[in-house]
């Protein structure tokens, strides 16, 4: 599928992975809508690149529909990338004091990292289904999981469950959407160094870098964006979860 001339929605487009994706798709000719809740950063990208920013709560139907409508006003919506963040409750299933993990902490994380992803995916798919079918299909949906879906660490149960859910949806969604010619692919990043870490980034790099087999460093946001571009352009990538982790496997803690 050609990126040039398509419209694209990037949910979480002001974050590290999202901003890199916005810049990559924009540079390749896509008409990009940045869908996020960070107004200052979103408007900054809008001014710098000429993309559109729409304040978007990934878990709210009307909010996501507004971002999709903006994308459709720019051209046929054929690319949806979801890499939004959010609160991630954690802790052991049973704490050292003998108390059970908070149900609220679990459900909050599931809502943020799984249900919101489903919300964006279903609404993007319906919009893509309205587009004219090309030889390459109607579009591609790219979700973001984590290697924690496979090797969740101690204290990561809610986050691991949510990301595992994103992994589990991938093949089924691809099969569901195959009659419409819409592909679904998930990226499962390892440890990525993004601006959100601020001054703590150096400490994280020193901790995680040596644990990555090769290259021995944390991932960089443009590497995620490069994979997004490759997925869009390769029509035979479908129903797959791609680990992007330098062969890292999380230890228990």
UniProtKB/TrEMBL annotation:
Q: What is the superkingdom listed in this entry's lineage?
A: Bacteria
InterPro entries tied to this protein: NAD(P)-bd_dom_sf, Sc_DH/Rdtase_CS, SDR_fam
Does Oxidoreductase show up as a keyword for this record? yes
One of its Pfam families is adh_short
Q: Which organism is it from?
A: Nocardia globerula
Q: Does the keyword Oxidoreductase apply?
A: yes
Query: What is this protein identified as?
Result: NAD(P)-dependent dehydrogenase (Short-subunit alcohol dehydrogenase family)
Q: Which GO terms describe its molecular function?
A: oxidoreductase activity
